[in-house]
# Entry
Amino acid sequence: MEKIKMKVPLVEMDGDEMTRVIWKMIKDELLEPYIDLKTEYYDLGLKHRDETDDQVTVDAALATKKYGVAVKCATITPNAERVREYNLKQMWKSPNGTIRAILDGTVFRAPILVDCVKPFVKTWKKPITVARHAYGDVYRDVEYRVEGPGRAELVFTAENGEVSRQTIHDFKGAGVLLGMHNLDQSVSSFARACFNYALDVKQDLWFATKDTISKKYDHTFKDIFQEIYKKEYEARFKAAGIEYFYTLIDDAVARIIRSEGGMVWACKNYDGDVMSDMVATAFGSLAMMTSVLVSPEGFYEFEAAHGTVQRHYYQHLKGEETSTNSMATLFAWTGALRKRGEIDGINELVDFAGNLEAASLKTIEEGVMTKDLAQLAQLPDIKVVNTADFLKEIRARLDSML
Ligand code: NAP
Ligand code: MG
# Structure
């Protein structure tokens, strides 16, 4: 069989530990035998980030702006322990944070569903994608501990010197204070990323805030979404047969639990932090959660939602057998290849991504899986396989499909 040709390279960001091991296995076993893989390679492994003073992360993000589509392996975000372990020059920032800041993107997390792993919520039949706003609110707040009586005020001094002053509270005793902010520009980017993503996957978009209580702050989010929807997206949503739905956050939570799934759920920063963990857990496993960063200009960076699976890596280094689930990393690759194929008009690439996903789902449905899933799957006969054998099993099914 002739290999599939690519026109424009994918930005490939390699990473750390067990996911780096899996990365190479996926390329060797499931991609390179079928595709004339064209990538621009950036090594975001911690050692190389340190050698380049983290310039490689910036370069990789800029390359994503140039080519439009990237695929990223999980990477270590260094802490004090990692600084010692890798003898680092300094405690480099989270690569995901750096890339997100350069692309100004929104992260969409969606579970991979298999029939034999039932969500904890019985009504959920389709994936729920959580989109989290990644700027401001309580994550960029200013806090103050009030130790005794006094007046707290909210003061804004405009550039022309005009002052607005409101009393927050006249304290009679000790308490706490918090100031937070957001920007119309950031909320607008978030809204556009969500509308574009919903159109892309042809799913309804839900958005919720607490605008009845927060009549200026949360109401601004609601208004910006509504305005952008009316002006730029309503006609396209109608044409695609999907809808945009706004409700209060408490109502959204109740409705999500009773729903069948199958929607994109846009959340403010804090709501997204909390709800994405709830949704991920309720669907079963972190190893089955995909993640894609979408910029307002329409650049995509695909990855797995989990980390570098450090515990398994140390077992691997000791020569012990591992049973690490490669599904989310594999789906990062298929997501990126499909997007590349769509943009460049290469149908074979789009079809290959679909076939590879189907072969991997079939493997699990037939009872062949890694340890993490075996603990959750409801099947009479389960064959637990190691990291490498899982990929070989997928390859066998892929070959019989092609
Ligand atoms: P982790 O890598 O997500 O793993 C936590 C645990 O979840 C594992 O020990 C394992 O449980 C289970 N698990 C996660 N992915 C799995 C998979 N594919 N197959 C099977 N089991 C899986 O989180 P961590 O150990 O807390 O973090 C390790 C490193 O990852 C850290 O340095 C962190 O900075 C980094 N990180 C990177 C990203 C990213 O690049 N996007 C995200 C999160 C964390 P058992 O041990 O019980 O088998
Ligand atoms: Mg969190």
About this structure: The radius of gyration is 23 Å. Residues 273, 277 surround magnesium ion (ligand 2) (CB under 6 Å).
